[in-house]
Amino acid sequence: MHGLGVLGRASELARSGQLFALATVVWRQGPSSGKEGSRAIITADGEIDGWIGGACAEPVVIREAKQVIADGKPRLLLLGSPEQFGQFFNTGVPEGMTVVPISCQSEGALEVYIEPVLPAPHLVIVGSSPMAHTLAQLARALDWRTDLVSPAEFTADNHSMVVVATQGHNDEDVIERAARLRPAYLGLVASRKRGEAVVGYLAERGVPRDQLDRVRAPAGLDLGKTSHEEMAVAILAELVQLRASQQERQPMRQLKLAEAVDPVCGMTVAPTASTLHLEHDSVTYYFCCAGCHRAFSDNPAAYIKAATR
Q1: Mind listing the pLDDT tens digit for each residue in 7-17?
Q2: What is the pTM of this model?
Q3: I need a surface site. Which of 37, 42, 52, 275 has the fewest CB within 10 A?
């Protein structure tokens, strides 16, 4: 997969709710197998789809992409030798940029822009009122994953945002089922008095208080008396506000990144079964290419000593 195919796949992943990073080659110095405009998708578990470069670049891009996913911030990755990016080694690296020295035998260099792609929010609207249809249209205009379903079709998970707009038809049953799932948001389209009655009824039925406390009734920002179109806007505004606040509070996720350093050239490589490797004194060493593997096997003591200085 390459070119526009990668962008099409990225759109599919975003719509399905998967978190990933998109890497794009923005500059190259030949010889390098990565070309300007080459793209790849990297998932949170390190799977790559697309092309940004060969064995020298790929493990580093995967490592940095996983960190981009973890902290949610894009970065410009410079891959090359100190001679190619010497000004940054001498003066410091600007914020948002990462310089990784590699000693690839091709002597190429790359600049790769890596950006996190957040999953599209998942909104489940239960009901068939005009307000429900308007809310679905507005959410889809934001490119949110939006399901407009009947009570019998209702399903969600704890990442979903659920709006119950059944207008008095089995409100209690749907709220009870939804509360049990502990979604990211649960709102009931009803008056405040009606909302209190529904929650009170479920409490008497033994629904746990911590589940009922999650119910927002009435759903949406309080705009006073509104039309059904304005009510849909008020609910969507509350959901946008909630999503923005959650992103601000989300702590950085610490990922354990599996990686090794080539003792000959110092390049980062993935310690997998398919990576060139050699065991010496009960320690396994990994290499970026056959040249480094051969150099180490000819004189391991020299490289082990250099690596431990």
Answers
A1: 888 888 877 77
A2: 0.61
A3: 37
